Amino acid sequence: MRTFLKTLKRTVAVAAVAAATFTLQPLTAAHAHDHAPQTRPGASVVGGTPAQQGEFPWMVRLSMGCGGALYTRQIVLTAAHCVDGSGPNTSITATAGAVDLQSSQAVTVNSTQVLQAPGYNGTGKDWALIKLAQPIDQPTLKIADTTAYNNGTFTIVGWGAATEGGPQERYLLKATVPFVDDATCQKAYGGALTPGDEICAGYLQQGGVDTCQGDSGGPMFRKDGAGAWIQVGIVSWGQGCARPGYPGVYSEVSTFAANIKAAAAGLGG
C-alpha cells in the first residue's frame, strides 16, 4: 500500500513570520486519500536551512499546496498527484521569483492548461505539466534525460512543512540527501515502490532530513558535469517525513524525459 503523498488535503494556515500569515488553497476532494494512515509525501523540507534569494530561481509554489520547477518560462513541471487530470484549467496560481512568498518581488501567474502524465493511476508516472497564462522571467531547470546523474547527493527545496504534520513555510528551505538504491528502498517499501519509475533518497539510518507535506511536485536536483543544476527527481511520496528507515520517494525524471519534452511541445510555450 502506498504511503504519504507529499501534498495538502485541506486549507493550511502557514506559520506566522514577522507577525504575518497566509493561507494556501485546499486540494480538491480527489486528493482526500493523500493523508490516510498511509499516503504519499509533499511538505516543506525537514532538516532544512533557508535558501538565499535567487539561489533556486526556477522554483515555483502552486496554490493547491505543491511545488514545481520552471521547465520552460511558461510551463511548470510538477507531480501528477498534485493535479486532477488533463485539460483547460485556470484555477491554479503559480508564485515564483522570491524565497519569501509574501515578498513584493514574488510574481503570481494563473494556469491555462494542465497535462497529467498519460496513464497515471496513482502508482508511478508521477509527473505533470502546467501551462501558465504568460511567461515568468526567471531561469529554467533542465531535466536529466539519462540515468547518469541518478547517484551521489541531491538537493531538495520547498515551502512545505518543516516537521511531519507541521504548518507550511513562508520562506523556502533547502537540504541535501544521499541517493538510496532500489534494492535498499524496496526493503522499506516492498511492492509499493516502482523501480524504474521512482528513485529514492534520504538518510536511511538516522532520518532527520526529507521533503514533507506541501513539497510534492518540487524538484530533486544535483550538479551535472559542467556544474549546472539538473533535475533528477520530482517529490512524490514516502512514509511520513524524515523517519529513520524510510527514504523519500521521487519520480525518476530521466525515465520520463522524452515524454515530458513531447508533452511540453504539445502545450506550446
From TrEMBL:
<feature type="domain" description="Peptidase S1">
    <location>
        <begin position="45"/>
        <end position="265"/>
    </location>
</feature>
<dbReference type="InterPro" id="IPR001254">
    <property type="entry name" value="Trypsin_dom"/>
</dbReference>
<dbReference type="GO" id="GO:0008233">
    <property type="term" value="F:peptidase activity"/>
</dbReference>
<dbReference type="InterPro" id="IPR033116">
    <property type="entry name" value="TRYPSIN_SER"/>
</dbReference>
<protein>
    <submittedName>
        <fullName>Serine protease</fullName>
    </submittedName>
</protein>
<dbReference type="InterPro" id="IPR043504">
    <property type="entry name" value="Peptidase_S1_PA_chymotrypsin"/>
</dbReference>
<keyword id="KW-0720">Serine protease</keyword>
<dbReference type="Pfam" id="PF00089">
    <property type="entry name" value="Trypsin"/>
</dbReference>
<dbReference type="InterPro" id="IPR018114">
    <property type="entry name" value="TRYPSIN_HIS"/>
</dbReference>
<dbReference type="InterPro" id="IPR001314">
    <property type="entry name" value="Peptidase_S1A"/>
</dbReference>
<keyword id="KW-1015">Disulfide bond</keyword>
<keyword id="KW-0732">Signal</keyword>
<feature type="signal peptide">
    <location>
        <begin position="1"/>
        <end position="29"/>
    </location>
</feature>
<dbReference type="GO" id="GO:0006508">
    <property type="term" value="P:proteolysis"/>
</dbReference>
<dbReference type="InterPro" id="IPR009003">
    <property type="entry name" value="Peptidase_S1_PA"/>
</dbReference>
<keyword id="KW-0645">Protease</keyword>
<keyword id="KW-0378">Hydrolase</keyword>
